[in-house]
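Researcher: Go.
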Amino acid sequence: MECLEICTMSSGALEILKYIRAPACLNVLLNTALGDFEDPERLDQAYEAIIQFLPRIKALADQGNRIQIKAKPEVAYFSISTVKFNFHHPTQTTKVLKWMVENLADEFMEIGLSIDGPAFSEETLHILIPPTPYRRVSRSNIGNVRNVIHQADSILQYLSNPKLGSDGQVRWPLPHLREVAALGRSCDLLGILRMLQARAEAIDSPAAVATLEVSRLYLSGRVIELEGGGDVISRINVFMRENGGEIWHYDGGETVQFSLS
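Model: Structure:
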């Protein structure tokens, strides 16, 4: 089987997958309601439905593909190349997404995290990816070219300081973060600069588990054109160049390397 696509808001889709075995399927789309997330039997059923695709996910990761995750108010998105899971839940999409990451992404897989829900906060991020060296979130998109992220400043602040990890150790959040895309108009340029500086200065910090420098920064046109932002962008540009990094202009399609005219 080359393609499997199941799209229904009935939680019965997981029942259907009990009778389908397609672990080598090249294209998978599962877009469905999860049902009662607090029911252990339901979780076991969901696990059986998606775990058959783990070998395909691992193969795609070995080919250099990055897992993409996103939590919106009623949908948790998990995808890698041609394998896509969209699980709908009215109240617990963050926990649903965390459950998918824990079961489908091992510690060596690269993860891209999109933060573009209006209610997404630093608390949401802490729950989804707690400070730990074992989740390789290498890229984070903050906002998008259309929506406002009300908590963008607090998320940048969260990424700028070490936190108490799930193992009781003080750790930096997202220690493998190498690329940041600041796409929403609500992203504060000074907040971006402070975050870049704080993570670069933390390289020799006892709380750092690896080099924390962000090597590539993407800015949308909306961020670049923020009133009074020219001086700060110039400072960001100098900082990135001095630390071997790059700035790219990104608006959802083609990316071009940024240069000050």
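Model: The two ends are 53 Å apart (CA to CA).
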